[in-house]
Amino acid sequence: MNRHVRRVVRAGLVLGAVIAGVVAYRRLRTRPTQREPEPITERHSGAFLVRRRCEPDRLEDVRDAVERHGGTSADEWLLALEGASTASLFLDRTGDDPELVWYVEVPWAAVEQWDGDDPETTVAAAFPLTHEALDDADEPVDRELLVHAVHPSRPRRTVVDAVALEGTGDALEREAQADRTADRSVDVELVRMDLESGVPERFADWFAALSRNVTDGELRLNRIEAWSIEMLEAEDMFTESIFLERRPDGYSLLGYMETAEMARVYDAYYDTWNPVARASELVLGRVLVDPAVILEYPLETDVELLAHATNPDRPRRASACERFSSESSAE
Questions:
Q1: Which of 64, 68, 97, 289 has its CA 20 to 30 A from that of 202?
Q2: Predicted confidence (pLDDT) per residue in 204-214, tens digit
Q3: Contact residues for 112 (Cβ-Cβ < 8 A; gap 6+)
Q4: Average pLDDT for residues 96-103, to the nearest whole number?
């Protein structure tokens, strides 16, 4: 069997498995989908990553500086950007030099109110920690957001450590429950996934173009978005973002996850015929250099969470993004 035929056979097996999963899943779903408010996706809210290189022999000094700002109880200082709704600070030891990585989520309606034409520059200028051991990352990185998804009843106030959000009842009951609890403990992870060269990189470019069409409102993925929300609710995944980074030495995906309990995410992920879960497992298993870095639990990464914060009014639904940005501007 020549190489071309083998590629066709593999592609056919993947497509066949995905279709079979979709059919089986639709047969299992006997309850009609209720019409609920539109969920937050990359069409409504953006997410950004900013890196700062850290001198290797000054890591403890930087840790001390983070602790002085509040550590894992961080709030205003980590959300030091107009309209920021969720933020996390990580120490990334994946590369040759350690880096601090700031993740921040901002509704697009808030981004539109910023001064200046380049949101990336505005976010970079708002990096929450200033220290003489930190410097701009030397390596050029072309980064863009591929996927952003939000649990429709995610807690608005969180602390680090995992206790699951109850997944029972309808959407309004779950949202009311989240409001009754002032602080929800969470697991937060940032996972780097290197892509194989060649076809996987071209696939990532195609997916990035597709994502831009979704963000611009030119493409609607209603059924896929509904499946995605079902997975978020089953996993208790509060906030999830996936970035594509293009570097001189290759492409990588960066996955950000804020969840009630990471173990529950993997239990739910592998215990469903949800097409989004099964298709992602097949694709990631074929495009990543090391699929185990994201497909196996427990996660084994060189990225450490230093601080995490959420705005007490962070939006859960698409309709709340505009209101949240207006309230943030008025403060």
A1: 97
A2: 999 999 999 99
A3: 325
A4: 94
